[in-house]
Design goal:
This protein has 265 residues and is an alpha/beta fold. The protein has a single domain, classed as Stationary-phase Survival Protein Sure Homolog, Chain: A, CATH 3.40.1210. 23% of the residues lie in helices and 27% in strands. It has six helices and 13 strands. Strands 3-4-2-1-5-6-7-13-8 form a nine-stranded mixed β-sheet, sandwiched between helices. Strands 9-12 form a two-stranded antiparallel ribbon. Helix 1 crosses helix 4 and helix 2 (83-94) packs parallel to helix 3. The longest helix has 18 residues, at 149-166. It is globular. 42% of the residues are buried.
């Protein structure tokens, strides 16, 4: 499409596309079914997802115990591991060839700001990006008893179609967050950087029947940083937000600073 292969990964024509879907909510999640429906006519769709919920597992790989794969119908498989395990197995073994596109989601809950460090949904897409496969993570910030999966479906489909047409640079993935509201009630779609997010720090201490203490960690959303043009505040304001993420975590501005330190060789 006029862009050299060394600068941009192009999925190509949708007619022959091999699309891999995954998530971190598990093979039976409603959001995954919604994503399958949204992507069904864009190519040959395969689903390889964790057998059980793997939220906040980040980019962990299962290296010291075996993985089990179960078939759930034509081109649908579950893996007894993490989202990254699922994409790894799919891309290197289960699918007939390397997928042209990976879409992860639709996550039940947002993955905004520093959530991306913990998110299994984002990790599935990031695992694909590590192989230079164009990838997209999709999350719906569910706030009510009847999630607007249809809104997330429409936004995801629009962004995926643009990704197919325009491509992504190697090592780049897209992180999409959609407010839980009707499509015609969206404030719009915005491209935005990551911001910062805080949760209430919570550690619940209990005692099991044998008298041993155990702990539950993780609190509710507290606030976003006061960065109005970043992903969190925009999503709170009703915008669907798209954030490009890169595999390169290097703080490049610190390289010359560190080179100026007097470090012993």
């Amino acid at each position: 499409m006029g862009v050299p292969d060394d600068t941009r990964v192009m999925p190509g024509s949708t007619r022959n596309m091999l699309i891999l879907l995954s998530n971190d909510d598990g093979i039976d999640a409603a959001g995954l079914r919604a994503l399958e429906a949204a992507m069904a006519d864009l190519g040959e769709v395969w689903t390889v997802a964790p057998a059980t919920e793997q939220s906040a597992k980040s980019h962990s790989l299962t290296m010291h115990e075996p993985l089990r794969v179960a078939e759930h119908g034509p081109r649908r498989f579950s893996v007894s591991g993490t989202p990254a395990d699922s994409v790894y197995l799919a891309a290197h073994h289960l699918l007939p060839r390397k997928p042209d596109l990976v879409v992860s989601g639709i996550n039940r809950g947002s993955n905004l700001s520093n959530d991306v460090m913990y998110s299994g949904t984002v990790a599935a897409a990031r695992e694909a990006a590590s192989f230079d496969i164009p990838s997209v993570a999709v999350s719906l910030w569910v706030t009510g008893p009847s999630p607007h999966w249809d809104t997330a479906q429409r936004v995801a489909r629009e962004i995926v179609q643009q990704t197919v047409q325009r491509g992504l640079p190697p090592g780049v993935l897209l992180n999409i967050n959609v407010p839980d509201r009707a499509y015609d009630q969206l404030a719009g779609v915005r491209i935005a950087p990551l911001g910062r997010r805080w949760y209430h720090p919570t550690v619940a201490v209990n005692t099991d029947p044998r008298g041993r203490k155990y702990y539950w960690i993780g609190g509710d959303h507290d606030r976003f940083a006061d960065l109005p043009d970043s992903d969190g505040p925009l999503c709170e304001a009703g915008f669907a937000v798209v954030t490009p993420l890169h595999m390169d975590l290097t703080a490049h501005e610190m390289l010359p600073v560190l080179r100026g330190w007097k470090l012993e060789s």
